Amino acid sequence: MKIDARGLVVSEKRVGESDRLVTVLTGEKGVLRAFVRGSRKAGGARLSATRLFTYSRFSIFEGRDSYIIDDAQPIEVFFDLCRDIGRFSLAQYFCELAVSLAPQDSEAEGFLSLLLNAMYLLSKGKYPLSVLKPAVEMRMMSLTGYQPNLVCCAGCGCYEADTMYFLPRSGEILCDNCFRIKQKKEPAVALGRGALTALRHTVYAEPKKLFFFRVSAETGRQLSEASERYILETLQHGFTTLDFYHKTASTSDEAAK
């Protein structure tokens, strides 16, 4: 059976002498792994279209045991990501997160659109990572079905206070008073008013407005801690690309200010 799909190459590895195995996040079939036969010899559009961080149109044959890419034409290559190690590593993390969370063999247009927008902003090199990272993390978790309840305090129902506590294990928020009364034995991230507003934005904003906000350095720190701890607490595993990103991000964020 032949499949025509649009997708972003989120990982690639060499198999044997000349073949490669690529993982593609497609809008039509979700996460899909396929072989590119003789890729080192093929050259041309098919080779460039199946490289990491390339958005392409694919013609894919579904074999008995595997998918095989018959033809591919690049739509957009996010080449500029390679010019900055911090943004490159964040793009790798986004891809690993998508592979972990996006569905397989079913529609994933929301995931693909989110990742393409993130890659575009990353490649431009002028958007703060303190906004991009938590926005992608929280929206991707929401798309998967792990949307936290940020509407109001889970204890008394108040909308906001000078300090609210985000509980990444349960995905709830508590005002300062309820947090002290309940004394829940789980990790919590203290959020000021700005950080809570930003966290709500990453979950509830319309897709087209997702990245349209800015935060101060301290608000960005709170926001990033909340989103990252929510990822790790919910999924109960880490990401090697996230560890690498933390080793390389500081210079990229300074350059974006």
Describe the structure.
This protein is an alpha+beta fold. Helix content is 44%, strand content 24%. The protein has helices spanning 39-42, 44-49, 85-101, 109-124, 129-144, 176-182, 193-204, 217-235, 240-256; strands at 2-15, 19-26, 30-36, 54-62, 67-77, 163-167, 172-175, 189-192. The strands form two sheets. A five-stranded mixed β-barrel has the order 1-2-3-5-4. A hairpin with a 4-residue loop joins strand 6 (163-167) and strand 7 (172-175). The protein is elongated.
Strand order of the largest sheet: 1-2-3-5-4
CATH architecture of the largest domain: Up-down Bundle
Order of helices and strands: EEEHHEEHHHEEHEHHH
- Please describe the biggest sheet, giving its number of strands, its sense, and whether it closes into a barrel: 5 strands, mixed, barrel
SS elements, strand count: 8
Number of domains: 2
Which structural class do the helices and strands define?
A: alpha+beta
In short:
By secondary structure, the protein is of the alpha+beta class. The chain folds into 2 domains: 2-77, OB fold (Dihydrolipoamide Acetyltransferase, E2P) (Beta Barrel); 83-256, de novo design (two linked rop proteins), CATH 1.20.1440.
Features of the shown structure:
257 residues; OB fold (Dihydrolipoamide Acetyltransferase, E2P); de novo design (two linked rop proteins); 9 helices; elongated; disordered C terminus
Question: How is the topology of this model organized?
Answer:
Blueprint: E1 2-15, E2 19-26, E3 30-36, H1 39-42, H2 44-49, E4 54-62, E5 67-77, H3 85-101, H4 109-124, H5 129-144, E6 163-167, E7 172-175, H6 176-182, E8 189-192, H7 193-204, H8 217-235, H9 240-256
Parallel strand pairs: 3-5
Antiparallel strand pairs: 1-2, 1-4, 2-3, 4-5, 6-7, 6-8
Helix pairs in contact: 3-4, 3-5, 3-9, 4-5, 5-7, 5-8, 7-8
